[in-house]
Amino acid sequence: MSMGSACADENKSKKDKMSNKIVIVGGGTAGIGVAAMLRNEGMVNVSIVEPKKVHYYQPLWTLVGGGVKDNAESAKPMTDIVPSGVNWVQKAVNAFDTANNQVTLDDGSSLSYDYLVVAAGIQIDWYVCLKPHTKKCSLLMYYCIIMCLARSQS
Ligand SMILES: Cc1cc2nc3c(=O)[nH]c(=O)nc-3n(C[C@H](O)[C@H](O)[C@H](O)COP(=O)(O)OP(=O)(O)OC[C@H]3O[C@@H](n4cnc5c(N)ncnc54)[C@H](O)[C@@H]3O)c2cc1C
What are the phi and psi torsion angles at 36 (to 5°)? Predict the structure, then answer.
């Protein structure tokens, strides 16, 4: 094999890798961060599946709770946050079919992928605080008391 054809093969294989289809479930801080990194690496076929139009930067909420920041400051339109060149699919994922490399969306359609990133976050259960005497309840109450104290000191 000549040097020229070896180089051409290498370039083709790199190009093929860069065009792998990547689907990221969730457009929160993690999903957006991963999408930006992949784009910076040169991946050209990256999609984020995220149903919400507004992105919330949750770490700021501690300061919102402490009265230092306004909640509106934690919100940004998804259109401002999705990295350039990334395809935003404004839907939710209803099911994963890993055997066939595809996810089912909430409109019944499906999206196929070569690589899947699941960054759907967690579901916060504020109501756990209504159930007394649980460990989680104590932790949350402790957190609330600290925040109130911090606020009263400022
Ligand atoms: C009060 C508070 C303070 C915090 N402070 C800090 C801090 O100081 N530092 C820190 O590092 N972390 C902090 N965190 C944790 C913070 O939540 C994470 O750091 C970060 O926001 C998590 O990002 P994520 O992308 O994993 O999840 P999220 O930001 O929750 O994003 C998940 C996304 O997935 C989407 N999604 C869910 N289900 C589906 C589905 N089926 N299909 C498609 N999309 C879906 C959601 O709509 C959401 O947009 C704090 C959290 C809270 C609540």
Answer: -65, -40
Q: Which residue owns the Cα nearest ligand 1 atom 21?
A: 58
Determine if residue 89 is left, alpha or beta; phi over 0 gives left, psi from -120 to 50 gives alpha, anything else beta.
Answer: beta
CA dihedral over 12, 44, 28, 109, signed as positive or negative = negative
Residue showing tokens 């009263």: 152
Q: Which pLDDT score is estimated for 125? A: 73
Span 105-144, pLDDT tens digits: 999 999 999 999 999 998 877 676 666 666 666 677 777 7
Report residue 79 as tokens.
């259109």
Whole-prediction pTM value? 0.81
Residue 103 forms beta bridges with which residues? 96, 111
Nearest CA to ligand 1 atom 4: 59
Mutate to test the pocket of ligand 1, among 32, 49, 58 (most ligand atoms within 8 A of CB): 58
